[in-house]
Amino acid sequence: MPSSFIPFVVLWCVMAAVVLAMVVWRKMVASHEDDNIHVLDASSVSQSQVQLAAKLDQIDKWGKTLTVITIVFGLVLAAAWIYAGWMNAGKIVE
Predict the structure, then answer these.
(1) Segment 61-69 long-range contacts (CB within 8 Å, at least 24 positions apart)
(2) What is the CA radius of gyration of the chain?
(3) Are the C-beta atoms of residues 33 and 54 closer than 8 Å to each other?
């Protein structure tokens, strides 16, 4: 791998680590979710569940966005690396 690609690979690794951290964060937040419906005590339980659902929606939105950006950046980086290798393969070494 040419040394010019190293900063981009490091950036991609950081982005992938952020996506994985978001997955762990979402799992931790979702562990407090109550999957049961409380009919008689609907006021306090439902309000906290609504807030939790809103928080999970925000985490999901950012998680999906960062995942797509990371995948596209990785594909562009791989294509650039293949292209650079292809261009260097045609050069004659003296």
Answers:
(1) 62/22, 63/19, 63/22, 63/23, 63/26, 66/15, 66/18, 66/19, 66/22, 67/19, 69/15
(2) 22
(3) no
CA-based nearest residue to 49, from 59, 36, 63: 36
Residues 59-93: tens digit of each pLDDT? 999 999 999 999 999 999 999 999 988 888 777 66
The model's pTM is 0.78
DSSP state of 3: G
**Cα dist from 27 to 11, 36, 44, 56, whole Å:** 25, 18, 23, 10
| pLDDT, averaged across the chain | 86
Determine the residue type at 61. Answer: K
